[in-house]
Input
Amino acid sequence: MAAPESGDGNNGAARMVTLISSDNTRFEVEAAAASLSQTLQLTILDGGGGGGDGIPLPNVDSATLSKVLEYCIKHAPAAANGGAPNATAVDRAELERFDNEFVNIDQSVLYSLIMAAHNLEIEGLQSLVAKKVADMIKGKSPMEIRRTLGFPDPTPEEQAEMNAHMLEYGWAYE
Amino acid sequence: MHANGLLCSGGLLGDDAAAMTMMAMVAVLLFLVVRTIFAPTTLLQQPHPRPSPLSSTPASTTPPPRNPRIPKPRRAAMVCNGPCSPAVDDESRRDRISNLPDDLLLRILVLVPLVEVVRTSVLSRRWVHVWTRLPMLEFADDEASPVASFANLVAGVIRGYATDVDMPDVLISVRGCFQYTLDEAVRIAASAFLVAQRATTTTTRTGVFEKLTKLYIFGVQFTDGGDGINNAIIRQCPCHQDLELHRVEGIKMLFLLSESLLRLRLYKVMDLERLLVTAKNLREMEVTKCFVMMAIERTWIWLTLPKLEKLHWEDCCPDEIQRWSLPSQIWNLTIVELSRGYLQYCGGGQSHFTRILQAFDRTDILRLEIPIAPVSIYHHLRH
Output
């Protein structure tokens, strides 16, 4: 999918744009997919990103960008339909399956995705990753959250502070 | 600019003690006050304690290593929801979420039940204050079961909320999952007061909800016959524009005098006998299944609504209609006959709904809905 520049060969009429990651990798994608990003949409409407120019994205590295584009390409057709009127239940189920799979990633990637989705203003992706993290937090005690999110062990001072804090916040506990 | 609404649902006001009644009334009002309009975008516009790194720090470049030392391997660290890739090393498992700027953390935390969000404050120093800027506060006692006292929770959150942020939407939903003592109810009311004061700007007049524009009360049982709410609307809400009472009990008389009110919706205000509305700017009004059908006293409605444009009437007609000031022509008039089942349920009788038509001379759009029961059912009901 998000093939670097050379892998192209799409004869269809779909307009392509080139995005350049922070580490200078070029990605060529359909304008429709890239336009899921509010940030890019205007540039693309103005005719940017075509030809040899490319749109530089100094905030997004190639690994993250390829992941982001994977999402955009998958979601572009549904977005083009203005959401769903034509979408069949099968299509929706497929998208859902894709989404679930998509966020099964380790935390550093998740973090990069959150930042990228925010910077590029991709609404659907922002909600998806936020929900993923919320699910990691929900229904857990603070200790379990610390383990899930991989917090370092607190220093003794920090632990003491937290204990005091917990006393003060007694109303939020049993 | 500030649209503050207060949303309250649930019934809590069941004590007859006069003081309690008043207090409970206040509580309901407060709930409403708390709600400042929350648009998702405001999330990102909220003032920030520190400059958001978004613009300056490239997302993908290495985030500032908050915890430089390598975390020790953890037992049972794989509580991980998703199958982390097989070759998880410590690096990939290390906490990165804490490095997110506050506004992105908040976007995540609004999806987590409030009690649990508050508890994140003990995760680490980074998290102590994050929750205090939540863009939405939703208290529901049926979800808060793990806390010992719902009233204390409400009070604690309101007390702890950041003082430099406009109080966001606050929804306090009381479904009676706890047995509320008088004391608990009073304390919930007091918290709501506090919220209302915060939503109420600089003026020092107490008990005046300066910025309140929307009041929505759902499922509350009033014990004062309606005095409290009448009084509040008349005297304490100078900017109030929308009022909706939905499935409330205990209001026999509703006297609404307001210059600012634009929309009024009364839906199943179960015990209504007398309704007086004097609102010179009111444009839309709906009355659905409110009036008591077999009231002992005469029921009546007095209207002074010179700018009324739209009326939806789905109720039996009171015995007396006084039009002190109604436009002779309104734009949209909808009259819906009550279903036969409902009429039966109310003790039989007629709704006399057509009498409402006589209150107006002309209308641009008239919509009449009359349910027609199959003949067999009709006969069945008659005999």
Remarks:
- Chain A touches chain B through 56 residues (CB under 8 Å).
- Residues 1-11 of chain A have pLDDT under 50 and may be disordered.
- Chain A has eight helices and three strands.
